[in-house]
Hints:
The protein is mostly helical. 75% of the residues lie in helices and 0% in strands. The longest helix is centred in the last third of the chain and has 39 residues, at 388-426.
Amino acid sequence: MQYYSSGRLSQHLLWLASLAGVVGLLAARAFVALSPVVGVLAVLANPDLRRELPNYYRNGAAMRAAAFVGFLLLSSVYTSEWAIWRHEVFRSLPWLAVPLAFTLAVPLTGKQRLTVGSLFVLGSGAIGLGTLIKYLLDPVSANAAIGIGQNMQAITGVFHVSFGVMLAQSFFWGLILCRHPLAGALLRKALLAAVCVSILTLHILAYRTGLLVLYVGLLGHALWLLSRKSFLLGFGVLLLLAIGPCLAYYSLESVRERTYASIWDVQQFMHGSDINKYSLARRLAAVETASVVIKDNWLVGVGPADTHAAMMEQYSWKDFGLLPANRVEVHNQYLYALLGGGLIGLTLWLAILFWPLTRAQARRNYAICFFILTQATVMMVADMLSLQIGLNLFVFGYGFLVVTEEAKSRRQLRGAEEPQKTARRTGTTLRV
C-alpha cells in the first residue's frame, strides 16, 4: 500500500514503459506495442490522479497530439477507405497514450531519465557496431548493393531510414548526456564510445538519410554557437562540416558508391528513362503525382486513410512508366500531411512539430531543439509517420522530451502560484 500511496508504483511503471519503448524501437517490436499500455497503467497508479487530471488538458503539447487523432476521427465524414481508416485510428492510439502517460504519471527522477536516454544511445551504438561488423565481413558485396541503391538494414531488422535517424540522434543525445551531472566517469566513456560508433556507422554504411540529419544538426549547432558569439567553436564546427563529407567521400568506397548511385538515380528521372529500379527517381515521380492531387484537394485533403487510393488513381493517368508494384507513396511528411489533410492537416502537423519552440524554456533545452531539428529534417525526405516504427520514434521522443518539459513548467508555475494563493486566503503580504 505504501508503494502505491507514495507514487513509486506509478513512477516505476512509467520508467518500465520508457525502457520498453527504447528496447522496442531498437530490437523488439512487441515492446513498442506494450509500452503505451504500461504507460496508461502508470497513470492509473498515480495516487493523486484526480487532482492531476486537469493538468492533462492544460498541457498544450498533449492537446496538440490529441488534436492529431481528433482530425483523423473527423475525416471519417469524407473518407471512403473505411478499413484503412479503422486501422489508422488504431495505430494512432500512441498519440493519446504516450502524452497522457508523461503528463499524469508520477514524473521520472533525473537518474531514471538518464538511464532511459543512455539506453537509447548505448543500444543504438551496440546495434550500429554489430551492423558495421556484418558489413566488414563482406564489404565487396555490401558496396555492390549500395551501388544499386540498396541499404543494409540494422542487424535487428530496423528499417534503414529509421535506424539512420536513430544513429544521428544518438550522436547528439550522447554528447548531451555526457554533460549530465549524474553521469559517472564510466558512463561518460561508454556514451562517447557509442557516439563514435554511431558516426562511423553512418558514414561507412552510407546511410543517406541519417547523414543528412547528422549534418543539418551540426549546421544548426554551428549557427547557434555563432549567434552566442562563440566564434571559434562555431567556425570549428563549420570547418568540420566542410571536411567531414569530403574525407568520407575520398576514403570510403561505400560513400562514393552511394554518391554515384544517387546522382545516376536522379538523372534517370530527369531524362525520362525507365525508373522502375531507382529509389530517388520514383520518389520524385511520387512528389509530382501528389502535387496534382493536392491542387484538387487543398483545403481538407483526400483524407488520411485515402492517400494511397488517391495516389494510385493519379498514377493511372500518368504512371511515369512505373509498374504497379513500383508506384510509391510520397516520401515527404509535409506533402503527405497536405495530401491527407490539406491546409488544415498541414497546419496541425506544423503546430505539433514547431510550436514547442515558441516557449523559452523549451528553446533552452538542447535535447528538445535537436529532437525537433532532426525530425523536421528527416521528414523532408521520408513520410516517417506512415511506418509504425517512425511513428513510435517520433511519439516517444515527443512525449519523453516535449510533453514532459511542458508538464514540468506547469508544475513549476503552479508551485510559484501556490504561496500567493495562500497569502490571499490568509490576508498576508508576500515579500520578495
